[in-house]
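REQUEST ID: PR-0412
SUBMITTED BY: lab tech R.K.
PRIORITY: routine
TASK: structure prediction, single protein chain
INPUT:
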Amino acid sequence: MAEITITTPLGWIQIVSEDNVLTRIHFMDEAPLEAGNSDSFLLECVQQLQQYFDGTAKDFPFLQIARQTGTDFQQRVWSELVKIPYGKTISYQQLAVRLGDEKCIRAAASANGQNNLAIAIPCHRVIGSDGTLTGYAGGLWRKKWLLDHEAKNSGNASQPGLFD
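STATUS: complete
OUTPUT:
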């Protein structure tokens, strides 16, 4: 296992891989106690995340070699999340409809919250049906920052109703 912690506009982010497979991107509220052991794969991940924060990258090619463990349903939810375009949002209700069952909204929201690859699998792009920010494991202030950042860098200065 290899890991590295980087400093970003959102605080520290820990990136973990195993056998050149990305397994975790996690927000940290405190500085790490010790340095991790990185490798060339993780350094590529860091570069792509830095480009995201610079506004020059809108997707993550390293996702082709990412893995999360989860149920079949969670895997389906995470697969839907990567289809949400940069700078856009959908509601939890829309996510449930995309999964084929509008009644699975709570299960979809729960699976969304179990995502271990923050930013790269864009769970932050899912909002309430009324346009409000709801639930984000990294904190709502980070979710707002990410959505504002993407809106600004996608040419969508703002999305109507978002954050009013």
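NOTES: Confidence is low (pLDDT under 50) at residues 160-164.
REVIEWED BY: pending
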